[in-house]
Design a protein that fits this description.
single chain, Endonuclease I-creI, 61% helix, rod-shaped, 2 domains, alpha+beta, 12 helices, 15% strand, 294 residues
Length: 294
């Protein structure tokens, strides 16, 4: 099961609360994936989805609010014969007219933004596996509803952006902290904790990698510097100038030749002098070697 489906299964387990919350969640589902059809004899609202979870939630909301059953059909998807399409149809004229009136007057109907966001995520939401990347989105065919979702997210200090992908408007969130806030809003608390665990592990790994990379870079610098110092000393020896060095320079030169991988601190400890003294003497040796090259 995908992480996105796990989040939806957890969110849908949230017990239906009160009439206002239920209306807000139902309005979200219809607004996102519902369709109103009319003809001379009939008027109906239907939702079509490949996710049985959404169909079941829609059924629960309608039956709880109106104490009336509705028609559920299952068909094979034309795009993928292995998948089912779940079709929920509300054709009771009284119920349909009441729902339409709520869709028309959204400001009065949607009084619970948590429920509306939950219904929106269930119907058109998607979240990637946080082990791979942080990305959550709502895919909507209507710019007004996309902006409504964005406004509701903002009430919880959740920043989102809208882009156009093909013919859809995508409300998306990239920052992990913002996604965690939304999971809390829609009551997907176990998924929230799982994502936080993954985020903490990622941060720890990144911190370890930074330290390792830093240490590797420092080691490379130390090795490169040691190779140059050894080459400078060998050049002085080749030019028969080693005997002309003072005792301090000879001491450091011999220590470096005998301990090619040692850091300046390690050389200083071996000789019982300071690191700055070692560094100064090696620079003097380098200067002498450069003069011998001229």
């Amino acid at each position: 099961m995908s992480f996105s489906q796990t989040v939806k299964e957890e969110a849908v387990k949230h017990t239906l609360q009160n009439k206002k919350s239920n209306i807000s969640e139902l309005t979200a589902i219809i607004n996102n994936i519902g369709k109103v059809s009319t003809n001379e004899e009939n008027i109906e609202i239907r939702i079509v989805t490949e996710n049985a979870l959404i169909c079941r939630r829609f059924y629960e909301l309608v039956t709880t609010l109106y104490d009336e059953s509705l028609e559920i059909n299952i068909e094979k998807s034309r795009k993928n014969n292995k998948k089912n399409l779940y079709i929920a149809i509300v054709n009771d004229k009284r119920i349909v007219c009441d729902i339409i009136s709520k869709l028309i007057d959204m400001e009065k109907s949607v009084t619970d933004s948590r429920a509306y966001l939950r219904g929106s995520f269930l119907s058109v939401g998607y979240i990637t596996n946080p082990e791979k990347e942080y990305h959550l989105e709502f895919v909507n065919g209507d710019i007004k509803n996309a902006k409504l979702i964005q406004e509701m997210l903002q009430t919880y200090d959740i920043n989102s952006k809208i882009i156009i992908r093909k013919n859809d408007y995508i409300v998306y969130i990239k920052e992990s902290e913002q996604i965690v806030l939304l999971l809390n809003v829609i009551h997907a608390h176990n998924s929230l904790l799982k994502m936080e665990d993954i985020r903490i592990k990622k941060e720890m790994i990144n911190n370890v990698n930074r330290v390792v990379n830093c240490e590797t870079a420092n080691l490379q610098k130390t090795v490169s510097a040691a190779i140059k110092q050894i080459n400078d000393i060998k050049k002085i020896i080749t030019k028969h100038q080693f005997s002309n060095l003072n005792d301090g320079l000879k001491e450091v030169a011999e220590a470096r030749l005998n301990n090619a991988e040692a850091s300046l601190i390690e050389l200083a400890e071996m000789l019982g002098i300071s690191k700055s003294c070692i560094n100064h003497r090696l620079r003097r040796i380098s200067e002498i070697a450069e003069r011998l090259s001229c």
